[in-house]
Amino acid sequence: MFTGIITDVGTITKAEQRGDLRLIIQCGYDMAGVDLGASIACSGVCLTVVDKGADWFAIDASAETVSKTSSAMWTQGRRLNLERALKIGDELGGHIVTGHVDGVGTIAAIAPEGDSHRVSVTVGAEIAPYIATKGSVTVDGVSLTVNSVADNADGTATFGLNIIPHTWDVTALGDLAEGQQVNVEIDVLARYLARMQERLSAAR
What we know:
Layout: E1 8-17, E2 21-26, E3 39-42, E4 45-52, E5 56-61, H1 63-67, E6 79-84, E7 103-113, E8 116-123, E9 136-139, E10 142-151, E11 157-163, H2 165-170, E12 181-186, H3 188-203
Antiparallel strand pairs: 1-2, 1-6, 2-5, 3-4, 3-6, 4-5, 7-8, 7-12, 8-11, 9-10, 9-12, 10-11
């Protein structure tokens, strides 16, 4: 379980295809306090620490994980938003985030807006219904508030985000470019409400 509040930005220093994809990620965490088997969200994907050093950790990403997430995040030199798992008593500064990516979005536009950046993301029809104005969404692991939603004729939706300077500067969101893929996780409450609605509709 995570909150979408990024605590470090790591860099992939090595990507090696074995049976699974092994990534070595350099970070600023005190790895002495991170156990093997611990979960770390990497740009929104919950991954398991399988090896570590003083300033790095390794993860294995299965073919299923790679296929369901942004292709851009698995390359050497890529910067990743990092968050360690939530502990009981930690401040819940963002919203409840599971680290399970619901879909891949595409950056449709980036434009300055005051001191901030206005970012538009287009998502597929499978998750479009779960994006709501003033609701929460996780983009590449960052908890954000949806400012606007526009439904498109093909069933997709494009939603707008306002990224304040602090968030732009201290996360890897500052690396975004138009056309780039991003990992999107819908609000867990929307997921449960959709399931409840599905069951109610089936019972009628």
